[in-house]
Amino acid sequence: MAPTVKDDTGSGPRTGAGHDAMHKSIGLLDGAAIAASSTAATSSIGIGLGLMAGVVGLHLPAIMLLAFLPVLAIAGGYGRLNAVEPDAGSSYRWVGRTLSPWLGFLTGWVNTVGTVVFMAYTTTVTGSAVIQLLDQAHLRSVAGLRLDPDSTVQCTLLGLVVLIAAALVAVRGLDLAARLQKALLVFEYAVLLGFCGYGLFAGDQQFSLQWFNPFDLPSFDAVAQGMVLAVFCYWGFESVFSVGEEVREPRDASRAGFLALVVMMLLFLLAGTAFQRVLPLDELADNGAHGLTYFGEKLAHQPLAALPLIALTFSAVASLQSSVIPTARGMYAMGRDGVLGGVWTRLHPRHATPAVGTLLITGIAVALALVSVVIPTVNDLISAAVNAIGVIVALYYALTAVASAVRFRHLLRTAPLEGLRAVLGPLLGAAVLLAVGGYLAWTFYDSTDHFELSADNGWFELTVVVLMIVTGLPSAAWARWRRRSPYFLDPTS
């Protein structure tokens, strides 16, 4: 008999064959580790703060606080939806059931495509960090080839080795992956707390409360661009909801997501303040993708100065693994609903993980990473990916938030406090993200009058966003009219 999940919307329980096929193997701290690894605070700090400084100036703490508020509000919607219907498809299933199966499919599609793009680009970041570590160890060439941390080809190939290894661990089991990620996080956070805490007192740049004042941001353009970059940094907390079927207690998934999100915010505030205490604005902005490494070198001598770089490498590795885990489960849910082929639903006979889907997703990311080497520098890769994915994340976060508001609107009458969390908060968060995402998309369009394959060409960045969305339409149409998926024919099932 298929299990049921109680739904307090009055639309009845969902049933689904294979709903408990995967093992319930993780708890609160495991889920928090997966969510925290997916948000990858160390990588976001090491790479994102430098990029944001070039946009918002000395207001890194302000923009991180400002972006946290709508994301936190939307997290309330995610938590409520997961409480009544834990599902490997998470937002794909919730949006499809509540709003429209077409919107639900596109939500799952852009989530998957965005994550695969992120995985492909993160392989480059990982490879760059490894080469920088080798340089610190005075190993600067192999077989006569000079190692260059800014070489897209070298960094991508080395990062792909790490990606494949991370995927194989994920196939082995979610519990093993969570244990690995917890170990990596302990080291990362110890390094961040140590260096950033020391930087607060050792820095010689004058501290100012204006750093935390969002009304002092230089322009609305800076707010919109900075918000999208900051939301990108918070992106990933919801990955724990994709493993909701494997969490022993559904509430633990919600708690883990909130815990990871709050910890991220505190780390971003600490790091943003410490970076601005230690580094002048021009140095912070100019170092971009190497910001954390440069920060460590300003505060310590070798070998201690290498610790932030090691932490960045660990964060990139954990982020790769925690990206493939929820993506494979999202595809598993789509295959289970009949919108994709049955190959995505094949579980490992011993570990009950979506092994085939995990390897397929990894293979797609590998292929995309190899194609991406046409963009010549690591910084260009990062800039193009962050801007495009930031708009996509704003879109599917907003759709999920609207789904929560529609599904639980009755709570405004029956339980106003719960209604605030599940309806009003998510609606306000969705409005903010749609506004900044839409404004950023317009600035992409308005920033140039020609198309160029370059990370700073607005039409190119806008094209990446559009392609991520429209490529899902043929697949949705195929699932609706050829596969005749129950997801489209009876979305409440």
What does this protein look like?
It is a single chain. This protein is mostly helical and 493 residues long. The protein has one domain (24-477): Amino acid/polyamine transporter I, CATH 1.20.1740. Helix content is 71%, strand content 2%. It has helices at residues 28-39, 41-56, 60-84, 91-98, 101-136, 152-172, 174-202, 220-234, 239-242, 250-278, 281-287, 291-299, 307-336, 355-371, 378-407, 411-414, 416-446, 458-470, 472-482, 486-489, and strands at 4-5, 14-15, 141-142, 145-146. The strands form two sheets. The chain has a two-stranded antiparallel sheet. Strands 3-4 form a two-stranded antiparallel ribbon. β3 (141-142) and β4 (145-146) form a beta hairpin. Mean pLDDT is 84; it is low at 1-7 and 9-20.
Topology overview:
Blueprint: E1 4-5, E2 14-15, H1 28-39, H2 41-56, H3 60-84, H4 91-98, H5 101-136, E3 141-142, E4 145-146, H6 152-172, H7 174-202, H8 220-234, H9 239-242, H10 250-278, H11 281-287, H12 291-299, H13 307-336, H14 355-371, H15 378-407, H16 411-414, H17 416-446, H18 458-470, H19 472-482, H20 486-489
Antiparallel strand pairs: 1-2, 3-4
Membrane topology: Multi-pass membrane protein
Transmembrane segments: 32-56, 62-81, 102-131, 151-171, 183-202, 222-244, 256-279, 299-320, 355-375, 381-399, 420-442, 462-479
Keywords: Cell membrane, Membrane, Transmembrane, Transmembrane helix
